[in-house]
Amino acid sequence: MQAMWQIITKPDTLIYLNASFAVSTARCKLNWQKKDHEEQLRRLAHAREHANLLIETDELTPNQVLQQTLDYLKEKNR
Q1: Can you tell me the distance from the alpha carbon of 48 to that of 68, in angstroms, rounded to the nearest whole number?
Q2: Which residues neighbour 62 within 8 Å (Cβ) at sequence distance 6 or greater?
Q3: Tens of pLDDT along 3-56?
Q4: Which long-range contacts (CB under 8 A, 24 or more apart) does 65-74 make?
Q5: Rounded to 5°, angle at Cα 59 from 57 and 64
Q6: 70: closest CA among 57, 58, 56, 53?
Q7: Rounded distance, CA 50 to CA 35, Å?
Q8: Are 29 and 43 in contact (CB under 8 A)?
Q9: Residue 64 near residue 72 (C-beta atoms within 8 A)
């Protein structure tokens, strides 16, 4: 179900963190095939389309992702 994220919770802000197949599998030590990653992207497409903020994380450290998130939330709440 595409809108599962809306059923489970109704977030005030939706932040979508995107990572490529190579980065995702390396970070989480996943034993996924490319098709598994593509299926995950398909399942998350609705959330991605409705996200308030999309962060491409491949080239970022966790602290940089956090900082982008905090900057967005600070700006949003002005």
Answers
A1: 17
A2: none
A3: 666 767 788 899 999 999 989 888 877 778 889 889 989 989 999 999 999 999
A4: 65/17, 69/15, 72/15, 73/13
A5: 65
A6: 53
A7: 23
A8: no
A9: no
Read off the pTM: 0.82
10 φ/ψ angles, rounded to the nearest 5 degrees: -115, 85
Tokens 């989480």, residue? 28
Helix pair 34-50, 21-28: axis angle to 10 deg: 100
3-state secondary structure the chain: CCCHHHHHCCCCCCEEEECCHHHHHHHHCCCCCHHHHHHHHHHHHHHHHHCCEEEECCCCCHHHHHHHHHHHHHHHCC
Nearest to 19 by CA among 61, 52, 51, 50: 61
